[in-house]
Amino acid sequence: MKQLKKYGNAPFNIAIIHGGPGAPGEMAPVARELSKNHGVLEPFQTKNSIDGQVKELGEILEQNKTSPIKLVGWSWGAWLSYIFTAKYPEWVEKLILVSSGPFEENYAKQVAETRLRRLNKKAKAQLRILENSLNDPGIKNKDAIFAQFGKLFNKTDSYNPINNKSEIIKVQFDIYQNVWEEAAKFRKNGKLLELGRQIKCQVVAIHGDYDPHPYQGVKEPLSRTLKNFKFILLKKCGHHPWLEKNAKEKFYKILKEELKDK
Question: Whole-angstrom distance between the N-terminal and C-terminal Cα of the chain?
Fold first, then answer.
């Protein structure tokens, strides 16, 4: 798998950071849209630790970016971009967090509770089967099972979705398992949020009101922690704003405005 895709023409001063962890390619539609007016980098994370992904992202950006860069991170990519910006504040001109996970542990349980509540009886049964399969040590390659989780949660996470073919290049369960276990501990001990005190640039969070990741878990902790923070809530919008019929146009309008050179 290539580590980078480029869209548009130089200078490449915007980088789109994908979610997962371990699901590269999902933000390709956003990269294509932004490339109409900007040079856009879409780096893919292949390492199975937070430090490994931060280092890998830094190496890719150092080789290809026009400094300083604007980072747009979605879902897990929002956390990774946040961590990267805290560690390399001089590299980042602006940080945009799209559909981020909550930054404090007390909000975290709401994600699973909301998803479960939105599943019908048949889907709940399917979820139990998938969970048992992931926990089965006899199954060695679990990428396909993990991909089925993604399809199931796309239904719970969307308000009024646009039918769109997935652009995930390769689902990688081992990366998800290792990185997310580490990231969850990082949030629980408070170190994730505390990193925000090292961020110098403006941070903008864009979040859907239907996203199972509660927007309060992004807005409230970051408002207390960051020096220059703005929060934007999208109505009738789930976890993938660019794939929502009611919110897509407004999402792109906001994103393009925030990425303008000022």
Answer: 36
